[in-house]
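BUG: 3D viewer hangs when loading the predicted structure for this chain

Environment: internal workstation, default settings.
Expected: structure renders.
Actual: progress bar stalls at 90%.

Input used:
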Amino acid sequence: MNLEASASSGPLPALVSIHDDRLRDEVRRVAAAAGRELDEQPHPVGRHAWTSAPLVIVDLVAAQGAADGRYPRRPGVVLVSDGEPDLPAWRAAASVGAEQVVTLPGAAVGLIEMFAEYDEQRAGDGVVVAVVGAGGGAGASTLAVALALRGAAAEFRPGTLLVDGAPFGGGLDLMLGIEQTAGLRWPDLVVEEGRVSAAALHSALPGAAPGLAVLACSRCAAGQLPCELGPVGVRAVIEAGRVAGDFVVCDVSGERGPHADQMLDSADLVVLVVPAVLRAVAAAAAVSSHIARRNPNQGLIVRGPAPGGLRGDEVAEVLDLPLLAAVRAQSGLTHRVERRGVPVPRRGPLRDAADAVLDVLAAPAEHRW
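Structure tokens produced before the viewer hung:
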């Protein structure tokens, strides 16, 4: 198995959604002068494109459409105008959280500065994967932990960051047997201005293996509610890992809500874990449809046992998803997790599933499917 990831070929292109032809030509001219690539898309752009681009450039119409579509607020949004912005332009800019309103061609230098600022921030070649389960007990958390352990052991990236997205799940640190290890958990993390340093995260979070930092949810005493995860904090953590070149593994499990949506929006790949039983496959159809509205990049792991004889390729055909792996149940895993936590997957079905995901992520994006 080749775990060598392709090197970054340079800064990612800025996402451009502009209806006005003249404004679009002006943005092209500025981008050419700055030596920057553009990804031009008509509105509505996909949520994954909206959240993953280093810089988003919109005009009034596209900004109003993004606001109407409840696209997540994010840093690095610029609204361009062909004259002095009027009240509707300022309102549209505020509704999408635009950092600047740039008049073209007169204030082109402002756009050039934004190109430079956000190309520098997204210079890293980190990879983000979100793991989602279909139905209760699908095994998404176990796969997420195994994937992070395997990625760290194989040095898939210089650092690995495991992000717990399931406040009601009891904490991924418990699954790793590091619940007594000192370090920050989600309630302890303070994100200022929507940004956080990856180096600071790695030094402050508990480690589960060399190069693997874990940001876990905390456990609650009786009568207490778990901590709420905010989408701004989730995005800041994911982007810190991406910029640093980390392998970021997000355990979404069966969660819904803004923080889970942020994980789905940010992922380069969403892995759907489906037990090979009829009810789980039925649940997976609805889960996959929900994911597809936010991110088109889905892959399927089918997990045994299969009491009715369902095969992985049959499940993939029903769900119309690419099959990454179909694996049998791993003997003794439940007992091992209860006693000592999820093991580093050295052999067996759990390693096969993790390696299948890593193989896809190691390929250039245009060759993954």
